[in-house]
Amino acid sequence: MDFPIFHLDFMGDRLLIAIIAVLHVLINHGLAVGFIPLVTWIEYIGFNKGGQNTVTHTEWDTLAHRLMTVAFIITTTIGAMTGVGIWLSSSLVNPASIGSLIRVFYGAWFVEWLVFVTEVVLILIYYLSWKKSLVSVEAKAKHIRLGTALSIFSWITMSIIVSILGFMMDSGSWAENKTFVAGFSNPIYLPQLAFRTPLAALMAGALALLLARIFTSKNSEIRIESGRKIALWMLVAVPFTLIGATVYYLRIPHLMIGNLPVAIGTMEFQSWYDLLVKFIIGAISTVIIIAGLVYFRPNLKIPSAFYVLPVLGMLAFAGIFERIREFIRKPYVIGNYMYSNTLRKDDYPLYKRDGLLAHATYSPVKEVTPENRLIAGEQVFLLACSRCHTTHGINSVVEKFEDMYSLKPNESLNKDLMKNYISHIENARYFMPPFPGNEAELEALVAYIQHLQSTGLPPEPLETSLNSK
Amino acid sequence: MLHHILLQTPIPRDLPLPLPLPHSVLVVLLVVSFLLHILFVNLMVGGSILTLWSQIKGLRKPEYDTLAHEIAETITVNKSLAVVLGVAPLLSINTLYTVYFYSANALTGIFWIAIIPLVTVAFLLTYAHKYSWKVLGSNKALHISIMGLAVLIFLFIPLIFLVNINLMLFPEKWNTITGFAEALTLPNVFPRYLHFLLASLGTTGLFICWYFGRKTYHFEEHFQELTRYEIRKKAYSLTFGASAAQFLIGPVVLLTLPTKGMSWHLLLTIGTGAVVAIPALYLIWKEITGKPESLGKNFWKITALLLTTVTFMGSGRHLYRAVALEPHQKLMAAKTANFQKEVKKATEEALLNPPKQTSVADAGEAVFQSKCSACHAAEVKVVGPPIKEMVAIYKGNPKGLHDWILKPGKKRPDYPQMPALGLSEQEIQDVAKFILKQ
Predict the structure, then answer these.
(1) Which pLDDT tens digit goes with each residue over B324-339?
(2) Residue A450: inside a domain, yes or no?
(3) Interface contact B91-A5, CB threshold 8 A
(4) Average pLDDT over residues B205-225
(5) What does pTM read for this prediction?
(6) Residues B113, B115, B119: CA angle, nearest 5 degrees
(7) In this model, does residue A172 exceed pLDDT 60?
(8) What pLDDT is stored for residue A263 in this prediction?
């Protein structure tokens, strides 16, 4: 309403944010929060194994260093930039929502930033001073303490961000009293944290197991030993992940659970839901089996390719969970305050009274007339539907209607049915916000969708359509 | 009519949430954190340019290749700090200038988001360059090209930021600007860009002078022919040249600024900053023309003076923005307040005259209207089967109907699935009764 509308009409705006955010979470959990304590632990094992006159056990230390190299390069490039990318993409797609979040959470984000700066400085020192730490026992001990501090800071960074994520799903009592504390301590906060912490450890374990396999040579003692240590790490994380997932699932607002099949796949894949559930169970089981074998049967020869499985399993598992998190907050982008079309719930009565376009700063038309109906309809679409739908791309609004009415090829959409559907849209499908406009705008939107279906083209710009009159 | 609207300056509404901190505190945070951020951005951009220059020079004189390697080492650190220190000013400008900043972002959309992949690639290239020094030792052309590409990206990114920061000052253009390329042509973009590049070179010169002058830096372990003095003098000269050039570019930047944000306050601030730079330049000049032993004696004095200049310039930049946007901000605040008043009125009206649903006598029919009619009609198929068909299936089996509504599923192959609707027990019973009555 108050911002020029940015809209990617092929891939859809949701997908842009989703790709960046999922990538970020995977790197943050898998290569930072869960990974750094694991690397520090391996470094510590090497330190303990060091002989009388040596600082550390070289093989173990080299392994830890190599693992850290991977983490360092990826977190300081893709990891850091996707973190910024969440901001930039949200500010394009949902400016009103990210702007509101910042006003509520400025304090938390500022503290987060201080912790984050510390984290980055520590990671730079930790990684870049690795060589120097080999000169003496004291230097090595200090280096390990540094790794521990870094682990703690990266966990704190995550635990602050998780609060904000929780807030977006369920704002708790904030919508009434709008205080920072109410927002920070939203009901989903602790369940999410309880889930994400062990999940991060598990993801890191899966990655480290694969990397350690690559970085150690065949039949070496360290390959077996380090594999066992990492597998142990994973096996310990598994039960906590499962408990965390259950607690989290139980906290998800009741109605949303009915929509989980849509959240996971898209609607066409709903029948695949059962398959997906089996897939998740399969992924976790694979992780358990591989880690179990590596730990309990150290001498069993497992082909390297199998080590990729837990990584893929964990990536899929975490990716699906992020998708669900993103989905179950619908129809809100900020629970009970702002719908995911970025209109505030409290402003709806005014839009119903005056119409949406009357208050749309950037709409070239403010009122629907017979001449501008298609242009008006396009504007209504951009304001009310385009945050989640495209015209002909992914999650196309035309296709959604065609599929919903099970139309045969060449069959046209029915105006009255669509009107009736959209005016009850929030009752038909919980994840969509109620239609915000007035009767004339509803007509215009329907006419626009019909136009899209019949021509496949956007409406002509207003000037030409006026001139040709 | 259309032209009329397009030519108007859009007056959006602000978010109806209070600022999290007093305005002045946010301004100080913005200015200070931005300066910190831009300092490391300068070092990242300047460092990569110098690395490239030095490595190319190294093709003839091998020690410059070593010098390039030493400078490249610093990019890793500076670039990470540049990114993380960027978060605070981003947060602060988002908070203080929400509407202005986001509007500019949306208008330059694709380029704005392209920052993410571009910077990621540039960072990966700097690592690839740094860690392939030995491996690509015999293929210098390739190795140098890696850095060359990174430098090109590093040179482009600031332009995107600049265009955004510039566009946010021009609400009167927001209705007509249609993308990055057009926003690039606004006056002032290129002079400011040059201003930034010179600052990068100047800052990096000073940084290198410090870096190679440290006592803990064992210079002789790396270089045999080049001397500490030589490198530091070159670095100083760079700072001198770049800063002197700012005295030419600076006025151009000032003159190309639209007059709407000008004020005596601004001129005084900028002027003071410029005056402070003069003794700094004089001191540098004395050091590079003086005796080798005394080079660096005034380093911290020079740094302090130039930092002061930069602080004045940064504050001037904010002053201009504040003055330029003030009238528009006032209009926006008035509009926001008015809108909130209207919202309140409309909400009260809506409460007084609820929509006439009461025309439906039957409770079950009311539920059907609001919850089912989107997908079901009396006689014909809509999304799901008509009521006629429901009655045929569930005549004499109200429990079956109840259970379906509570937990619907998939039955007909050519229909989509019916979603669970979350009705209360009472609503389910009412609507089931209504259906079976038909």
Answers:
(1) 999 999 999 999 999 9
(2) yes
(3) no
(4) 93
(5) 0.90
(6) 145
(7) no
(8) 52
Give the CATH number, domain containing residue A405: 1.10.760
Residues A335 and A363 in one domain: no
Residues A192 and A302 both lie in one domain = yes
What is the predicted pLDDT for the residue at A51?
73
| pLDDT for A269 | 46
Q: Is B15 in contact with A428 (Cβ distance < 8 A)?
A: no
Task: With beta carbons under 8 A apart, name residues in chain B contacting A255.
Answer: 420, 422
Note whether A143 and A130 are within 8 A (CB).
yes
CA distance A424 to chain B (A): 6
Q: What percent of chain A has pLDDT over 70?
A: 86
In contact, B276 and B229? CB cutoff 8 Å? no
Q: Using one digit for the tens of pLDDT, what is the confidence trace for B126-141?
A: 999 999 999 998 999 9
Residue B112 to residue A427, Cβ atoms within 8 A? no
Do B375 and A3 make contact, defined as CB atoms within 8 angstroms?
no
Give phi and psi for A333, each to the nearest 5. Answer: -100, -30
ipTM: 0.89
Tokens of B205: 């010169």
B123 in contact with A at a CB cutoff of 8 Å?
yes
Instruction: Examine the domain organization and report whether A156 and A196 are in the same domain.
Output: yes
Quick one: which of A148, A141, A228, A245 has its CA closest to A192? A245
Which H, E and C letters describe A60-90, residue by residue? HHHHHHHHHHHHHHHHHHHHHHHHHHHHHHH
Mean of pLDDT values over B149-174: 95
Which amino acid does the sequence have at A282?
A: G
Which pLDDT score, from 0 to 100, does residue B73 have?
A: 94
* Cβ-based neighbours of B180, under 8 Å, separated by 6 or more: B108, B110, B111, B112, B160, B163
Tens of pLDDT, residue by residue over A340-374, are 898 999 999 999 999 999 999 999 999 999 999 99
Question: Backbone phi, then psi, for B264, in 5-degree steps?
Answer: -65, -35
Could you say which residues from 393 to 412 on chain B have a Cβ atom under 8 Å away from some Cβ of chain A?
410
Task: Give chain A's end-to-end CA distance (angstroms, integer).
Answer: 30
Look at residue B436 in the predicted model and tell me its pLDDT: 92
Whole-number Cα distances in Å, B113 to A13, B12, B186: 12, 23, 21
Domain that holds residue A251: 13-339
If one counts the domains in chain A, the total is: 2
Query: Which CATH fold topology does B360-436 show?
Result: Cytochrome Bc1 Complex; Chain D, domain 2 (1.10.760)
